[in-house]
Design goal:
- Helix content is 39%, strand content 14%.
- With 397 residues, it is an alpha/beta fold.
- Strands 1-9-8-5-4-2-3 form a 7-stranded mixed beta sheet, with helices on both faces. Strands 10-12-14-13 form a 4-stranded antiparallel beta sheet.
- A hairpin with a 2-residue loop joins strand 6 and strand 7.
- The longest helix has 19 residues.
- Bound molecules: pyridoxal-5'-phosphate.
- Belongs to the DegT/DnrJ/EryC1 family.
């Protein structure tokens, strides 16, 4: 997954364009720029890559999710359904706009279980936030249907899935709004950065204004711009966009390497009868950012995770036992350890977390090992890694 492994002259050239004219901000200063509009150019590149009408760059993936929720008018007291397996940014963003995150089980895609989503819908549900974890996707047809039938929005967090697709639609372009991250460990990076994508002009205009203090961006005099509504600062800088502009042009190359490396590891592991792989829905094409597989039970997965580490195989995660991506270890959420007071409504809205049974998610995450696909492995390293992984896993199951 990490685009940070491969960068060089193209990134430097774009960054130097920005430094040479000194305009580090994406808006205004038209006369000083020598025609360099890195953020705007990156937005156009992303529109083409993601086949969406509108792209708004922002400062991070977390900002993208926050802006997407705000742009869709989601706020205090609204419920947003999200998966138990994701990144903490999902509930952070939902809570930031004052809405209530409703965590529900995943299925063998490692994405939201459409049945669990259906069961969690109440009169307060405004959106479902599907998270396309580790480069693959949930059962999107079923989720789209549930959302349509219940008249709720589908927000797609595709921060980990640029380059994946479903029925030939890029992941991130299927929901009403899609979100991307270009942080340092994503497939392409800006250092820090993110994007909101949509085909809906209103959501786009809202994102454009909201991410820049509510500025309407009409005319070229920033002081004369009006504020149709309140906003915040989630802007990306030109320096970050410059790096991203070089990276996005290399996306097909990155995806090709990812796919090759993934395939070598998967083919090797397929020899082991006890190893199964996450379900990719029919019509789905992974981005191949991670290889996710299941072992027979929690204990064999624990043994495998430990043994892989001991054998020097880095980048294989057992999310059940780490704090990163799974509800089991999110004490700060479950105990609502907020630095500042949170509303009574939100507190009450989160109280379900103490009593809800997430054993369905435990069954998948407990047995899952998730291996980051690096782009810098040589063929020799890749082959050795594959052989070693097979040896280790055979030994511990
Ligand atoms: C990385 C990530 C984010 C947040 O992105 P940042 O740019 O790090 O803020 C959100 N959701 C998922 C699924 C991610 O992997």
């Amino acid at each position: 997954m990490p685009g940070f492994e491969l960068f060089g002259q193209a990134e430097r050239t774009h960054v130097n364009d920005v430094l040479d004219n000194g305009v580090l901000m994406r808006y205004g200063f038209d006369g000083m720029r020598n025609g360099h509009w890195k953020s705007k150019e990156l937005e156009v590149e992303l529109q083409n890559t993601l086949k969406t009408s509108y792209v708004q760059l922002v400062s991070s993936g977390t900002a993208a999710v926050s802006v997407a929720l705000a742009a869709a008018g989601i706020g205090a007291g609204d419920e947003v359904i999200m998966p138990t397996f994701t990144f903490v940014a999902s509930f952070e963003a939902i809570m930031m706009v004052g809405a209530i995150p409703v965590l529900v089980d995943i299925d063998d895609t490692l994405g939201l279980d459409p049945m669990a989503v259906k069961a969690a819908i109440t009169s307060k549900t405004k959106a479902v936030m599907v998270v396309q974890m580790c480069g693959s996707m949930a059962h999107m047809d079923a989720l789209c249907k549930v959302c349509e039938e219940n008249n709720i929005l589908l927000i797609e967090d595709a921060c980990q899935a640029i380059g994946g697709s479903y029925n030939n639609k890029p992941l991130g372009s299927i929901g009403d709004l899609g979100c991307f991250s270009f942080d340092f460990v994503k497939t392409i990076t800006c250092g820090e950065g993110g994007a909101v994508v949509t085909n809906n002009k209103d959501y786009y205009m809202n994102s454009d204004h909201f991410s820049d203090h509510g500025h309407d961006h009409v005319g070229s005099d920033r002081g004369a711009e009006s504020h149709p509504f309140l906003g915040y600062n989630f802007r990306i800088s030109e320096l970050h966009a410059a790096v991203g502009l070089a990276q996005v042009k290399r996306l097909p190359e990155f995806l090709g390497i990812q796919r090759h490396n993934y395939t070598v590891l998967r083919t090797a592991l397929s020899q082991i009868p006890e190893v199964t792989f996450r379900t990719v829905p029919n019509g789905g094409e992974e981005s191949y950012a991670f290889l996710n597989f299941f072992l027979p039970d929690l204990e064999s997965s624990r043994r495998a995770s430990k043994a892989l580490k001991e054998a020097g195989i880095d980048g294989c995660f057992h999310y059940y036992d780490n704090n990163w991506h799974y509800i089991r270890k999110w004490e700060h959420l479950k105990e609502m350890k907020s630095l500042f007071p949170i509303s009574k409504e939100l507190k009450e809205g989160l109280s379900y977390l103490e009593s809800t049974d997430f054993s369905q998610s435990d069954r998948y995450i407990g047995r899952n090992i998730s291996c980051l696909i690096k782009l810098s492995w040589t063929e020799d390293e890749l082959k050795k890694r594959a052989d070693k992984m097979v040896d280790v896993i055979k030994r511990v199951i």
